[in-house]
Amino acid sequence: MTNAGAAAPRGRHATGRLGFLVLALAYALLIALALGSLVADDELSLGRNPLANLAKTAAEFARPSFLDVWFGEPRLEYRSDDGSLLRVEDRRAVEAGYLRQLAHATWITFVIGTLGSLLGALLALPLGLLTARNLGAPRPLALAAKATLDTCRAIHTLVFGLVLVGIVGLGPTAGILAIALHSMGSYGKLFAEAVETLDMQAVDAVRAVGAGPAQVFFNAVWPAVLPQFVSQHLYLWEYNIRDSTVLGLIGAGGLGLLITEATALFQWGRLATLLIVVVLLVSAFDALSRRIRAALL
Amino acid sequence: MKVGAGDTAIELRNVAWTAGGRRLLHVEQLRIAAGERVAIVGANGAGKSTLLRLLAGFTLPASGDIEVLGRRLPLCGAALRGLRTDVGQVLQGLHLVQRLTALDNVLIGALGRIGGWRGWARWHTADDIAEAMAALERVGLAAHAAARVDRLSGGERQKVAIARLLMQRPRLILADEPTAALDPRAAEEICKLLAAAAQGATLVAVVHNPALLPRLAERVIGIREGCIAFDLPLPHVGPEDLAALYRNATEAMAPVVVPELADSCLLGEY
C-alpha cells in the first residue's frame, strides 16, 4: 500500500468510486432540475378532472368499432330536432367498409416498413463495412461513413418524413424513404459490430490452407456474418413496421392516416380497433422473426 | 510430390524476429530435412509459436533467410497461397469455422486445390466430399459429419482439424500445441492421429507434455528465451535438458506484449 507501484492503481480506484458518486449526484440534480422547471411553469398537472376523463375514454375504448360489424344497429336513424328523418345508416355495412379500408391500410403500413427496411439495409451495408475497424478502411472514408450513420440515427423517422413529404409529395414513397434513412443509421452500426466481432481465428484457419481472398470471404467471413445480418435485419424490420404505423400522421399513408382521422374525429371506438390491429401486426411479426432468429443462431 | 529423404524441408539462417524493439527470437542456423519429425519444446513466451508463424508466412522476420519447401520467404499473393497449400497447420484448438459443419470444415482443407467458383460457393464435387468423409472416418468422426463444429467437444474439434489436414495433403505439417486443453487420453489419441496424418510429410510440432514426445518426434529442439538451447535426437534428450528450459522461466517471462498478427486486417495483403 505504501510503495509507489501500488499507489497508482489504488488512486485510480478511488477516483473511479468518487467519479461514480459525482455522476450519480449530477444525475439526481438533473432530475430535480427537470421536475423543478415543470413545477415552476405550473405545467405538472393532469388536467381538471383526470379520473372522469379516464373513465369516459376507457368506456369508449372498451367498445372497439369492429364489433359493430356484427352487433351494430342495422337501421340507425338520424333525425333533426323536429323529429324529421334525415338519413338512415346501416352501422354494420359502414363498419364492414371501414374494416376493408383498414385491411388495405395495414398492408400499406407493412409495405412501407418492409421496403424501407430493405432499402435502409442496402444503403447501410457499404457504410457499415467502411466503419468496421477490423476491415481497415481508409480513415477519412471511415469517419465520413460514421458521421453519416450517426446523423441518420439522430434524426427521427417522423422528421425525415416531414422533410421528404415536401420533396416527393404525400404517399408511401415518403414513408419508405424516411424509414430507410433513419434505420440506415442503426443498420450500419449493427453491421459494423457484426463484422468487428468476427472470429479471426476462423479467418486465419481458412487462410492457412492457402485459400484466396474470395475463398476466405465466402468460407469464413460469410458464414459467420450472414446469420447476424439476417437476425439484425429481422429485428430492425420489426421495429420499422412499428415505426411505420405512425408515419401516416404526416401523410405517408397506411394505418397512421386512419389513426390521425380517428383521433381528429374523437372516434375512440375506431382508434381502439386500430390499436388492436397495430398490436396484432407487430406481435405477429415479432413472434415470427423471433422464431427465425432463434433458428439462425 | 514425394520428396527424397535428403531434401531440405525447412532452412533458417540468422533469422531474427523483433517486437517493440526487442529481439524475441533469434535462430542462427536450423535445418529440418524432408520427412523428419521434430518437436519444439520451451517455456511460454520462448518463441515457439512465433517460429511456426514465421514458417507459415503469417509473420515476417526482421532479418535473415527462411526457406520452406524450397521456397524463399517472404512470399506474397499467389506464391504465398501456393506455399500454404503445402503447409498444413494444426493450431491450439478453435481454428475452425465454428458455424460450419464438421464436413464443411474438412472440405476447407481442399480450398488450396479448388479454384474458381466452387471454392467460394462451397459447392464441392462428389469426389471431394467422398474424400472428406473418408478423412472424417479415419479420425473416427464420420457420425458427426453434419454436426456444427461449435457443438463438438474440444477433442472432437481437434479431430476435425486433423481430418482437414488429411484433406489438405500437405508436405509439411506445423502443429502448435495440438493437445492444449485436452485431457491426457484425448491428447494421446490426437497425437496418434496426428502422427498417422504426418506419414510421408515433415512434422514440426510444439509440445508441452514430455510424455507425448515419443509419439510425435524423433528430434527435439529446445527453445529458451528466443534462442535454440539444444537440438538433439529424442533418445539423447534427458530430463535435465527439459528442466533447464523452464528454469528461471518466471524471470524470463517479463510481460511481453506480442503484437497481433501483422495481417489481422482482413483486406490487407497477407
Q: Could you characterize what this model shows?
A:
- The complex is a heterodimer of chains A (297) and B (270).
- With 297 residues, chain A is mainly α.
- In chain A, 77% of the residues lie in helices and 3% in strands.
- Chain A has eleven helices and two strands.
- Chain A has helices at 4-40, 50-61, 68-71, 91-131, 139-154, 157-168, 172-196, 200-208, 213-247, 255-264, 268-296; strands spanning 76-79, 85-89.
- In chain A, strands 1-2 form a two-stranded antiparallel sheet.
- In chain A, α5 packs across α7 (172-196).
- Chain B is an alpha/beta fold and 270 residues long.
- Chain B has a domain at 8-94 and 170-252: P-loop containing nucleotide triphosphate hydrolases (Rossmann fold).
- Chain B is built from ten helices and ten strands.
- Chain B has a six-stranded mixed sheet with strand order 6-7-8-3-9-10, sandwiched between helices.
- Chains A and B meet through α8 and α9 of A and α2, β6 and α4 of B.
SSE ordering of chain B: EEEHEEHEHHHHEHEHEEHH
**Helix and strand run of chain A:** HHHEEHHHHHHHH
CA gyration radius of chain B, whole angstroms:
18 Å
Q: Over all CA atoms, what is the radius of gyration of chain A?
A: 27 Å
- CATH class division of the largest domain in chain A: Mainly Alpha
CATH topology of the domain at 8-94 and 170-252 in chain B: Rossmann fold
Strand order of the largest sheet of chain B: 6-7-8-3-9-10
Q: Can you tell me the CATH architecture of the largest domain in chain A?
A: Orthogonal Bundle
